[in-house]
Amino acid sequence: MPTLTPVDQPEFLTAVHYVAARIRESGWEPGFIIGIGRGGLTPAVYLSHATGVPMLSVDHSSHLPDFAAELLVKLAGMSGDHRLLFVDDINDSGSTIAHIKAALVEAGGILANVRFATLIDNIVSAERVDYRFRTIDRTANKDWFVFPWEQLSPVDKVLEDSAVVPERLA
């Protein structure tokens, strides 16, 4: 059983403000923030409010084309004229970021206008993010981080979610 490590609301708010400050300091201004569902939706809403940048969303976790693949094609088309900041809760294996990048490129997207932000970034992930609040090393830290919105779920559901990719926490 994994160690469940809660991220409380004050830490979450600190993380959002920290990421917003790093974006401002970078001088790179996104035209849109895109929340990656499911875990990136709440951070994206808060980050949108903290930065004043409008928010869109894709639901990668649903595996439904109408809510992810088709929207990524539309976002690829927008990436020529707009800077897009994709937001997720954690960059763990990097598979979500890799999937989004590949889908954008396949649809003709301009990756030079795309960046990624997460609250937690695994430094041994296959993908890198541009903005993060904190880093972990999955070779040493196997905790399952339970964000405020996940804390509404029964513990058995949180454990079920953590087991989707068992090698991540092994």
UniProtKB/TrEMBL annotation:
InterPro entries: PRTase-like (IPR029057), PRTase_dom (IPR000836)
Keywords: Glycosyltransferase, Transferase
Highest taxon above the source species: Bacteria
Span of domain Phosphoribosyltransferase: 8-149
Gene Ontology terms, MF aspect: glycosyltransferase activity
CDD domains, alphabetized: PRTases_typeI
PANTHER family: HYPOXANTHINE PHOSPHORIBOSYLTRANSFERASE (PTHR43363), HYPOXANTHINE-GUANINE PHOSPHORIBOSYLTRANSFERASE (PTHR43363:SF1)
Protein's UniProt name: Phosphoribosyltransferase
